[in-house]
Fold this protein.
Amino acid sequence: LTPAPLLWIVPLALYLLGFILAFLPGADAWPTWRPVAGTAILPVLALPLAQASGQRFLVDFTLLTGAFFVLAFLLHLRLARSRPRVEHLTPYYLSIAGGGMLGSAAVVFVVPLLFTGTLDLWLLLAAAIATLAPARVPRPAAVVAALMVAVGFGWDGPNSDTVLRERNFFGHYEVVDRRGFREMRHNGISHGTMSLDPAHETRPVGYFSAQGPIGDVFAGLREGGQGALEVAVLGVGVGAAAGFAEAGDRWTFFEIDPYVVWLARDSGLFAYLPGKVPDARIVTGDGRLALADDAGTYDLIVADAFAGGYPPIHLLTAEALGVYQERLGRGGVLAVNASSRYLDLVGVVAATADRVGLTGYVRHDRGMGRAAHYATTWIVLAADPAALEPVVRREAGWERLEAGGRAPWTDRRADLVGALGLFRGGS
């Protein structure tokens, strides 16, 4: 979920509501439909979780939070039924608190060591379903049936396309080879693509296709007389941006996850960084904070740390754009990858850029429907409108960025609700 309290607070509130309802006086006498509802909840959860994410946000979010509430409530009801007499309540509630603490620790520290995918989620669901199964169903049979369903939906073992699977604090990583391209996915979102043809393995493809908007940016800056470029990139991905590097350029990458740096530079799976910019400087840490502490100035800053569905809000606020502006040299350009599955980042960036006095253009690129050229949306911003002319005149698709009526995002206030495309399909 987007790193903001707006979304995760909904399931948290539902979880607490289920706990409160389950412990209400007389709740134990409620109708006995709970075993049936508990057993039926798995297919509801399976609908959005087991398919490729093409569902609209409202459908996904409603199904998941609704199913989560029912399941949590039923489990809390089961817990309430086991409540002991008053003299034993202290260890009872201490056990609940201790279980929550141990569960949280297991999710953060243990599960990433045992699973490279999301099978643990399905195993937990299987345990919940088995616990809530009707009394007339033998317990061993309930456990076996639930495990079969969980493994059937959640098994994510290697297949012929899978090169690597890993999981850490930042999520689930997968590298797959398919149709002549190698792709790195983070939590199901593509974070970079490379051609498997050795003759073209350092050619920029995917979101960074030379025929796309970002290709206009690099070509325009070079044709505008910039010569060798000082480039900063927020978010390494697979290093595809380096496909535009030329002799004399100096590149700096900012990446919060050391594992991504290893994937792109040291794993041998991707050729961009070792093949095009082997001497690139890579700064590990939060992109905004690291850039603020950086002493350099740049001709181009590429903000690509939030491609996909869920951008870190602090990278798009007025204060963040101010940081980028301070690090741009005379005639410098900021390029923002505004491709998002669920959020209208174009409106957000337009309003926020207007707040800090930046001029901008946007280009929506439909792509070519294949890995060599993904559909993307890029925004270019600059304090001097003349700096953008060499970029936007290369392609008729560039449109002037208009702030409209959207409120700008700041560190104090970011209107995530207004940016949600609740009824837009995924990209």
User: Anything to note?
Assistant: The chain has 14 helices and twelve strands.
